[in-house]
Amino acid sequence: MPSPTDQPIWTPSDSRIAAANITTFRLTAAARWGLDLPDQASLHAWSVASPEQFWISVWEDGGVIGERGERVLIDADRMPGARWFPDARLNYAENLLRRRDAGDAVVFWGEDRVKRRLSHDALYLEVAHLAAALRGLGVEPGDRVAAYLPNLPETLIALLATASIGAVFTSASPDFGAQGVVDRFGQVQPKVLIASDGYFYGGKTLDCLGKLAEIVERLPTLRRVLVVPYVQSDPDLSAIGQAETLAAFVEPYRDVAEVPFEPLPFDHPLFIVYSSGTTGVPKCILHGAGGILLQHLKEHRLHCDIKLGDRIFYYTTCGWMMWNWLMSGLASGATLLLYDGSPFAGDGRILFDYAEAEDMTHFGTSAKFLDAAAKQGLEPRKTHGLQALRVMTSTGSPLMPEGFDYVHARIKPDLQLASISGGTDILSCFVLGNPALPVWRGEIQCRGLGMAVDVWDDDGNPLRGAKGELVCTKPFPSMPLGFWSDADGSRYRAAYFERFPGVWCHGDFCEITAHGGLVIHGRSDATLNPGGVRIGTAEIYRQVERLEAVVESLVIGQDWPPERPTDVRLVLFVKLREGLELDDALAERIRRTIRDNATVRHVPARIVQVPDMPRTRSGKLVELAVRNLVHGRAVSNREALANPEALDHFRDRAELAY
């Protein structure tokens, strides 16, 4: 862990701090409320202590279109149960479609095969046409519209048309199999399904029509299936019930030029998103329009410093919460840079090609992408012109200190690198970046404004400089409305409020540093416990993956001995560079690296080579599924994985080890 005497790896200049949105916000809030807010620490303290003042200021700073009403927060002592802006009326889509001009609203790259762009004027018209067509079909507030689509402009259009009516939008990416889609959409009973005929990945063309036909047969509530031709110009839809192309569906409404935005309550449902489903049927998490809009405006404008005309990118599919997060960037007047396909398509540099070609200002990615880019030897600093790039965000898993080194040495030195963390559960972040604060190697910069984030020990005592549970002790607007089909809220409460009643316990094992930043050591349910000492999985991954021979690693705790367990032993699985085999010498080098840079408690009892690591469709390792396999327990929902076949490499492998 860096000590307080270490130097930050990036410090914003005085001029950058002065020009930052968060500085303007701090000074404006201080004047509006008669406060002394001299720095970022006082700003955060006020945002948590005075939530009514703070969220009014966020509403005003973001220029929210709608009626705010008098009341801001009622039942503030209930968690869950607090209600925000109970008298407000607004429409999410209206706030995202506020720009009406010829500037780029959306730019799209489908690997190196497809390039498109839509102006703000053109986007508005496309939404007007589809919204009118959906209303003509009988779609009403509260109905569900589902998208089984790549990250296309049409997916955004579908979201905005749905939200303009007050219907609820839900999505899954086309790499999901039929069962994975039915597990999700089948629970929420959509009236309309919008899908593509296929998608491109890694230079290959992948068909979706066969899966789509099976899905449609198993969703009896569908009134219409709309197909976007993406990989074919004229796909054959004869095998798909109630199907027509999206273009044919909206054709009768091409003369419609206005979107009638439905004014809706602050907590009107907007999105249904899903848990990964690796331990059972996915949970359907319901999010409200007002809370998501306010939270995203805060995160985009204040924490990411997104300004009018910025060009923002996140590598994501429509099955990951970062897609929803990215779409809200339109509310800050930004251009959305969409991409679908492999992040290493072509010669492996396509995302940096995109950044250069489109003057990308914000580059959103994952820790795994940065690690892979480093191991492939990519040096965009030398090969690409990234003058416009100001901010890089990383999420999905903890970004190791070496990842910070790579970004500043090989991508761009003068760059705010914001490791961020939150989740599908809140469709936003608990901890993230701040353009007015330094970046310390290996640390997330700060806690989110308005978020009463803390780290507690098992007895609910706050910790500093020690590892514990990430909690949020006060309500915030982007808390879920609840779970679908959970009328009494019991499943929702059990998921987040059982560990510490009245306090959100997120399930991350982390610590608050001397700089006020955070380090996340892994998921709490994957935390290792050899000899009664809690160890985060990320602590081991950091050491193992610094070795050139190791591409990726996964560690579990195995109950030991198996006949009558009295302890836990660590079993480390490694994926090596192509052509390498795990032998005694490499196994010893791995152990020595861990021992020298962590502790003897971190050293695995067994090391096993596997050809691939199982992960969710958003790229996260599934340590719990592997642990279940090693213990002879079934993995209940393999369909939730991007590569379920990888699990087969782990079955009964713990003994075949060094």
In short:
The chain is of the alpha/beta class.
Give the key terms.
658 residues, alpha/beta, Rossmann fold, GMP Synthetase, Chain A, domain 3, 2 domains, 8-stranded mixed β-sheet, 7-stranded mixed β-sheet, 20 helices, 32 strands, globular, acetoacetate-CoA ligase activity, Acac_CoA_synth
Description:
Residues 105-475 form the AMP-dependent synthetase/ligase domain. Residues 546-620 form the AMP-binding enzyme C-terminal domain. Residues 42-95 form the Acetyl-coenzyme A synthetase N-terminal domain. It comes from Imhoffiella purpurea. Belongs to the ATP-dependent AMP-binding enzyme family. The protein has 658 residues and is an alpha/beta fold. It has 2 domains: 1-446, ANL, N-terminal domain (Rossmann fold, 3-Layer(aba) Sandwich), CATH 3.40.50.12780; 527-656, GMP Synthetase, Chain A, domain 3 (2-Layer Sandwich), CATH 3.30.300.30. Helix content is 29%, strand content 23%. It is built from 20 helices and 32 strands. Strands 13-12-9-7-8-15-16-27 form an 8-stranded mixed sheet, sandwiched between helices. Strand 17 (311-314), helix 12 (321-327) and strand 18 (335-340) form a beta-alpha-beta unit. Helix 6 (120-137) crosses helix 7 (153-165) and helix 14 crosses helix 16 (401-411). The longest helix is centred in the N-terminal third of the chain and has 18 residues, at 120-137. It is globular, with a radius of gyration of 24 Å. The relative contact order is 0.10. The model is unreliable at 1-5 (pLDDT under 50).
